[in-house]
Amino acid sequence: xxxxxxxxxxxxxxxxxxxxxxxxxxxxxxxxxxxAAHAGCPLPAMPMxxxxxxxxxxxxxxxxxxxxxxxxxxxxLGSQREAIRELTAKLARCEGLAGGKAPGRAASGKDTMGDLxxxxxxxxxxxxxxxxxxxxxxxxxxxxxxxxxSGAALPGDFREVLQRRLGELERQLLSxxxxxxxxxxxxxxxxxxxxxxxxSALNALLQxxxxxxxxxxxxxxxxxxxxxxxxxxxxxxxxxxxxxxxxYAFTICLWLRSSASPGIGTPFSYAVPGQANEIVLxxxxxxxxxxxxxxxxxxxxxxxxxxxxxxxCVTWTTRDGMWEAFQDGEKLGTGENLAPWHPIKPGGxxxxxxxxxTVGGRFDATQAFVxxxxxxxxxxxxxxxxEIISIANCSTNMPGNVIPWVDxxxxxxxxxxxxxxxxxxxxxxxx
Length: 431
What we know:
7 helices, 7-stranded antiparallel beta sheet, alpha+beta, rod-shaped
């Protein structure tokens, strides 16, 4: 731009020796035509958009070029301001000398470099017009620079790219907002459904508690109840509050009713630390009913999966590991060498309806008992056959001296329930 200013205004300062004066006492200022000031100084062109780039890359390249143009224009403006200050100083010097005619020269002459103008006022007027033209172009350039820097005006191609990009971003934003609204609505619906399901479960639980309270209050005697385990799961079970002392012999009797297939599962299990199968009665899959003591097994010839009430008794003594099995008062099997000389360990956990893999837990649904249990009693001796017959035909009420069947000694969990029952009466109905 400095070349532009030099072309617009040409200042020739000549030193002359006239009338005995020393050289350098006079200055001659000659103005070029204003059209020359506009020649060869186009405004910098804006960078054009690349054809082989994506819209984002084109926009990024255009912004970088625009920034470089702005930096260059700032440098140019600084140079132009310095040139204007220099030209203004020279113009002032010329105007100071234009007050009179130069001696020894005619009143008219060529307005060219090296010749003295005959009309200094005309020279000053031309210089003023040229200077005004430069100032106008400078102001226009400054305005363009400010507009480009502020981002208020960009070439049409870049405006279209920006508008297109902004439109895409706006559509993406609206789509994301719509997705969030849908997720919010779905979450609200799921929360409502979960709340309704929870309330329904709580109402069912409250109803079950109410039924249990009515059932408990209807027990004719503390032992006139049954534990119902209607599903094959790993969370329905009953628990005996009391534990066993060390035993060298025992008799375990109970009433049960089940039609589960295959196998009725585990009517009861007793686990101690270090031995989960201390005492277990189980019918698993298509296997016969088994009695486990200290993880040793005896198969019992019992058949109770017909959906009717049956009275079951098993006896065992540590001496030679002798065992007996009774069903409905009749001895159906006997044997020996079942964990001989092994005393039953004390302090374990008695569970109704589940087989324990650890003390009091880790139940397996495939081994769960499905049906009803009642009159679960344990004695610390081997009952005589006549005693077992009397209990089975309901002619004798003889609770266990170690574990008696009473309401306050049995807890139920996971949906298992206690109901009033007269097992002997129902047994007669089955017959």
